[in-house]
Amino acid sequence: MNQQEIIKFFDRRAPDWDAEMIRDDAVIDAILDNAGVKAGDDVLDVACGTGVLIPDYLQRGVSRITAVDISPEMIAHARRKFSQPNVHLICADVETFAFESAFDRIIVYNAFPHFFQPARLIEKLAGDLKPGGVLTVAHGMSRASIDQHHQSTASSVSIGLMHEDQLETLFGQYLTVTVKISNERMYQVAGTKAKF
């Protein structure tokens, strides 16, 4: 599996992404609550797609949203939807992109199985957090549902969703894990960076 395959896959899916999206607002609210997303935060949305969570961040009054995706077509669709001055859309590989400043909250929503080197991703994102900041990996479905969905639609660009205990161990190398949930409605692991 290579990065070009992933880009092509998501470029092809971009035109229909919003129409095919299934949202559970209560689950999204719980994920963002667990991540502590609040007014004034500087948020990084990793693998943002067409900007699915951007309205949720704006509703919470965050000060700045940096949304990054490797797919040019996903970012193009997001740019057509969002022109607010505090929304910054970047087409880049988050694992190698050098951000100008650190973030209060970093969210990887419905995207983690598409990163083929998860340990490297977590290390990079932990480094992009401000002291006291929170990194969250989350899905709006159960782990079993995500894996089943990817097997039928995205097996060539997905490694499967890591067991929450394994992800907790990865997080624990850099962060203090504050949330670990895996049930029939959602999956989330969140960790806080030490303040000192």
From TrEMBL:
Mind listing the GO biological process terms from this record?
methylation
Question: Where is the Methyltransferase domain positioned along the sequence?
Answer: 43-133
Q: Mention any Pfam family matching this sequence.
A: Methyltransf_25
CDD domains to which the protein is assigned, alphabetical: AdoMet_MTases
Q: Which InterPro entries match?
A: Methyltransf_25, SAM-dependent_MTases_sf
Record has Transferase as a keyword: yes
Keyword Transferase included in the entry's annotation: yes
What keywords appear on the UniProt entry?
A: Methyltransferase, Transferase
A GO molecular function held by the record: methyltransferase activity
* Xref: PANTHER family: TRANS-ACONITATE 2-METHYLTRANSFERASE-RELATED (PTHR43861)
Provide the protein name. Answer: Methyltransferase UbiE/COQ5 family
Where does this protein come from, organism-wise? Candidatus Brevifilum fermentans
